[in-house]
């Protein structure tokens, strides 16, 4: 964006509580805070940083939340549960004038923010990254993520479709035989996030079983819990965006986020 950076230093007290300090005495400007709200400790840091910036006199505070935690519990699946995404939004908007997220699990989570909020799509960056991979078709693991696959496919000028996923447990999923002919083709699977890798392992095994030549995988948020990256050894290449940093965070969404911020000014 062509603007300067101020560090926020944080540390933990012996009891685990968070201490943070913005390293300047006053701020007479518009400020952008970039911070994930996952894992839980980062959410607390974000809330404290927002308050500290306001008390330094910032004119406005825009919060960029590259990975918005708790987005998957966006409604009540069973009685007695919380609407976790709503709870997070309500806390985060306390000291925020504007929110920018990246590839939220469900777009309608934005409705819980009473301040202006936009969701940046990583599809252009993913499409550009794979433009030299000779991909024949882009697939999503389920119908819910199909529009993401369509967007990437459109950018790359190739077809897109979706697979059919059933979740069996936290770690395992079943992917129904693909309705689409992938024989001899290079397939790119696109999803918003990879957690345990169960979805991708099942999808990749199914696609290879029915003759896919190469299976590439791109996700926006690579959480890669436990041995997820090792579990996905059956995949020819796995990459993710830099919303959550890992050894395969090779796609930057920074230009797209900067563009969204500039458009809001
Ligand atoms: C679910 O709806 C998401 O879009 C991802 O497909 C899911 O979170 C991936 O989880 P895992 O890697 O544990 O299968």
What features would you describe in this structure?
The chain is α/β, with parallel strands linked by helices and 265 residues long. The protein contains seven helices and 14 strands. It has helices at 40-55, 84-92, 123-129, 146-156, 198-209, 228-231, 254-264, and strands spanning 8-12, 18-22, 30-34, 60-65, 98-102, 117-120, 137-140, 159-162, 165-167, 173-175, 186-194, 214-222, 237-241, 249-251. A six-stranded parallel β-sheet has the order 8-7-11-12-13-14, with helices on both faces. Strands 3-4-5-6 form a four-stranded parallel β-sheet, sandwiched between helices. The termini are close together. Ribose-5-phosphate binds next to β11 and α5. Ribose-5-phosphate (R5P) binds next to β11 and α5.
Separation of termini?
A: 12 Å
Largest sheet: 6 strands, parallel
**For the CA atoms, what is the radius of gyration?**
20 Å
Outline the low-pLDDT stretches: none
Bound molecules: ribose-5-phosphate
Approximate strand percentage: 25-35%
Helix content: 25-40%
Strand order of the largest sheet: 8-7-11-12-13-14
Mean pLDDT rating:
96
How many helical stretches?
7
A few lines on this structure:
The chain is an alpha/beta fold.
Index terms:
14 strands; single chain; alpha/beta; globular; 265 residues; 26% helix; 4-stranded parallel sheet; 6-stranded parallel sheet; 7 helices; binds ribose-5-phosphate
Which helices and strands appear, and what pairs or packs with what?
Layout: E1 8-12, E2 18-22, E3 30-34, H1 40-55, E4 60-65, H2 84-92, E5 98-102, E6 117-120, H3 123-129, E7 137-140, H4 146-156, E8 159-162, E9 165-167, E10 173-175, E11 186-194, H5 198-209, E12 214-222, H6 228-231, E13 237-241, E14 249-251, H7 254-264
Parallel strand pairs: 3-4, 4-5, 5-6, 7-8, 7-11, 11-12, 12-13, 13-14
Antiparallel strand pairs: 1-2, 9-10
Helix pairs in contact: 3-4
Ribose-5-phosphate binds next to β11 and α5.
